[in-house]
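Note to self: keep these together.
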Amino acid sequence: MDKKQSRLRRGRQTRAKIAELKVNRLAVHRTNLHIYATIIAPDATILASASTLEAEVRQELAGQSGKGGNASAAALVGKRVAEKALKAGIAEVAFDRSGFRYHGRVKAVAEAAREAGLKF
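Structure:
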């Protein structure tokens, strides 16, 4: 089993547990260059999302090195997704790290979303 398959297996276990609870989930996906955060309802509709590909985020990161692939960019994405969720009336979510380890950029998204008002 390679690295990607192992990550997908871990992510499947997490999503199964969240599906049992029937709550909205904050799903995080990261690549080498970007990070994506999406709030998904139990019926698989997307309620809010943010990523380092958005024009506003790219403008804020314009002077920095690494642009979308660092913890400060991830924190900005976490804050933006939390603000969008609160505006949509979502205050509580389950955190779906998609099989990624809870450190670095994934942790930065989670902490920034908590600070902005989301409850996990």
